[in-house]
Amino acid sequence: MAANSPSTAATLALIADDMQEVDKVIASRLQSAVPLVGEVARYIISAGGKRLRPALLLLMSGALGYTGSQRFNLAAVVEFIHTATLLHDDVVDESTLRRGRPTANENFGNPASVLVGDFLYTRAFQMMVETSSLRVMEILAEATNVIAEGEVQQLMNTHDASLSESGYLNVIRSKTAKLFEASARLAAVLAASPPEIEHACASYGQALGTAFQVIDDVLDYDGNAHEMGKNLGDDLREGKVTLPLIIAMQRGNTQEQALLRSIIETGSTDELSSVISIIKKTGALDATRQAAATQAQLAMDAAAQLPINPHSKGLLQLAAQLLERRT
């Protein structure tokens, strides 16, 4: 989100007290008899981040009038699942920097990162069982499975210069948007909302998550490395073919296509400046931002189906402000 956006800050202020309760749950459930487990988990969670998934669950709960304490528990659950994916992602991608500081695998090693990620998954499942709701467990079990499938598909797509836009979208809807969708849907389940409202919540979450990831992929070529807390060109180095590259491949001339294909297949960032130049020259960044705008509009359309109150207005603002995101 736009880090300094007044409307985003106002939206998040609606759930500031709720987020403090979620933080208490997170702190208490990170306890383990094995010191390294808590140390690694606290390291990555304390790095902060936008906490969008728990925030989405809390905002959606507010929009639907649900005030029960299970919203804190499930907000912590989705944050644990997300954090587990980050730990595993950074090992797979051999990343060294996240949110402006060394990744957990850089600090503690790959084995510890993988195993603590496993701990967070299993702790999340312990917590969801405590809801005594088969529907809640079904949503989160499916989401976790789909995320894992998306991770494997992304791995299969690495260094593939022929990846299509639809193939790219399939991955991010699985890998990123699915947990947004689950977070929003869980609020509807907690609130015992009718099917049409649950569907609107899920649609909002999926569209918002898709737009968020598309903008993230823009920032890998057009962001400020210091503000983002990661290195520009990381996606390219990791062999990830994202929408800016796909569109540039489609629009570039023969020479530009050949250069991009070679760089995608090797993962070299030696000519990152040339890649960025081609992406900008072909209008790929603008086209990618337009794709994100389309998803953001879908999210706003879904939010318009919710009861009108400060929380649902905040959800509309989140989708609108997403397009101004620079970090």
CATH architecture: Orthogonal Bundle
Q: Give the name of the CATH superfamily.
A: Farnesyl Diphosphate Synthase
N-end to C-end Cα span: 7 Å
Mean pLDDT: 91
Radius of gyration: 19 Å
Low-confidence stretches are: none
- Structural class given helices, strands, pairing? mainly alpha
Order of helices and strands: HHHHHEEHHHHHHHHHHHH
General form: globular
Looking at the structure, the CATH topology is Farnesyl Diphosphate Synthase
Strand order of the largest sheet: 1-2
The CATH class designation is: Mainly Alpha
How large a portion of the residues is in β-strands, by DSSP E?
A: under 5%
How many separate domains make up the residues?
Answer: 1
Tally of individual helices: 17
DSSP E strands, number? 2
